[in-house]
Amino acid sequence: PSTAASTPTRMGGRYSHLPAAPACLQSRYFCLTFRAPDRISLIASSQDTLELIRSAIAEAYKPGIRFEYDDHGSWSIILAGCPFKIGSSRSEAIAGKLAGIAILRRLLSRGWRAVVSSDLCRSNDLGTWFFSRTEPGVDFADESDRTSSICCLALSSSDRLQLIGFPASLTPRVVDRIRQEWSCGVQRGPEAVCNGQAVELKLHGNPWLASEQEAVDARQMLLAIVREMHRWGCRLYLSSSLKDTTDSLFFLCPRRLKPPVEQLLATEMFVLSLNRRDRLRLMGTSEQSEVEDKDCNQLMDVIRECVLNYWPKGLRQERDWYGARELHLTGSPWWTEGSDSVHSRLLITLLLQRLRQIGWRVVETVDVCRRLSDKSILLFERSPPRSTLHCCISLNGTSLLRFINAPEDVVSTMQQVVSDNYARGIKSEKIYAGYHQIHLRGQPWSAFSGNDHMHGRHLMLAVLSAMRQDLGWSLVCSADVSAKYHHSDSGQDYPLDVHSWWFCCTRGQLRE
Asked: Are 481 and 334 in contact (CB under 8 A)?
């Protein structure tokens, strides 16, 4: 691909060069961001890593690369076509996801493992993928991961599912699960599209816009698909937005699929869904009696206890809701700003901590619904019980960092990390709603102020490295739990807050 001789002209905003990534960071971490309509931006990537990504795009994305350029210390790759634009054609959108699959696979084969996908900007930018360099026998649960294939389940439009790059033997099994779980039925498909590289199903109803019964069914269907994939040894690897407000799910599949064995048949999973502005729903799949019967009462006791203890406005009511167990909280915990947003994140922090104590860990968070008032869903699986402190690094407004439930050593280390790695500097610090807050200069969580958002990603790379390498904390998940949305008559609505990050202390323990 050709490389532009100079950076394209920009209008408005302030642009400044990113600080050079320390060698220890560049050898262990980097990130890439997808941006509408056609951009992939890399921060702290080495030349070797850049070549891997170029070769992955050349392999899987037929339209190719239009040009590349150094964007004030980050590296931007501009693709031909508009694969990440809302309203792009089906073939363009699927081509973009095929490029994502190829990038993940090529990087994994060279020891770069995706740690998390996070939405760190209020508009324009899509998912940012953070990668960590793995060490054989330590960071990989199974060395065969390096030779695994990757496939993608895309939630498309308001009523479609696309199975992209799926193993041929798995496709009919997943289609069967969809038919079993989606009570409204399949309107069309499965239909092979894009020269057989994907299979699409058009469902009756609108599962990604639904409320009431269909909303519960949509989440149960998604959980059933994840469980079916896990039964065959295909693990959920990453959930990320590459185009719309709904996510695409990437799975890591062994080269040779093995028939389910007893322990995989009994895989126990459940979903916590944050709905509307004030509902918390617990659900399994329609077949999953082990969660619904044996563990549901214990789970509900724990969730209820956390709500009553850590949400100041309390609990309004509890009920069965189309097969889900629902808690209706007083106030609007999932549609907040100010001090209420701190309490919402503290509630989720301590709920994750308590569930870990009784043997449930987060597999992934997924943005499954186009309704702006619905937030992330959290997928849990059975895991050995572990008592470990959890904390939240909350990114608020356009320029705030809050450290919720974080011990003093974490706060003091993060102060130094910000000072060393955020070129714009610190505007002020204070205690806000009981927790330490840093007000950054510029607008690192907004795309409307020059390249401040790239400085924000550079900072979060350093945060991730310090939390994992220096302090011994493992990233649990990245999620949207409480952002209000700004309505724009002239453009797309956008959230007032971005994703927050949750960590658990794993000092002296191997990463799970």
From this structure: yes
CB atoms within 10 A of CB 356: 22
Say whether 473 sits in a helix, a strand or coil: strand
Listed residue (269, 348, 360) closest to 307, CA to CA: 348
pLDDT confidence band for 261 (50 / 70 / 90): low
Q: Which residue has the higher pLDDT, 370 or 365?
A: 365
Query: Which amino acid is located at 506 in the chain?
Result: T
Closest to 243 in 3D by CA, of 98, 373, 374: 98
Beta-bridge partner residues of 245: none
Which two three-digit tokens encode residue 213?
Answer: 């019964």
Q: For Cα atoms 428, 429, 435, give the angle at the middle one, nearest 5 degrees.
A: 150
> Phi first, then psi: what are they for 71, rounded to 5°?
-105, 75
Percent of the chain past pLDDT 70, that is, above it, reads 84
Look at residue 87 in the predicted model and tell me its pLDDT.
Answer: 82
Q: Determine contact, residues 404/345, Cβ cutoff 8 Å.
A: yes
Nearest of 444, 398, 453 to residue 39 by alpha carbon: 453
| H or E segment and range at residue 304 | helix 296-310
Rounded to a whole number of angstroms, the CA Rg of the chain reads 22
pLDDT of residue 17: 82
Give per-residue pLDDT as tens, 389-405: 999 999 998 999 999 99
> In which band, very low, low, confident or very high, does the pLDDT at 373 lie, cut at 50, 70 and 90?
low
Handedness of CA 505, 230, 118, 305 (dihedral sign): negative
Polymer length in residues for the chain: 512
Contact yes or no for 179/160 (Cβ under 8 A):
no
pLDDT higher at 16 or 506: 506
Residues β-bridged to residue 273: 281, 377
E-strand spans in 44-111?
Answer: 65-71, 74-79
What's the burial of 64, exposed, middle or buried (CB within 10 Å: 0-12/13-18/19+)? exposed
Does residue 67 contact residue 2 with C-beta atoms inside 8 Å? yes
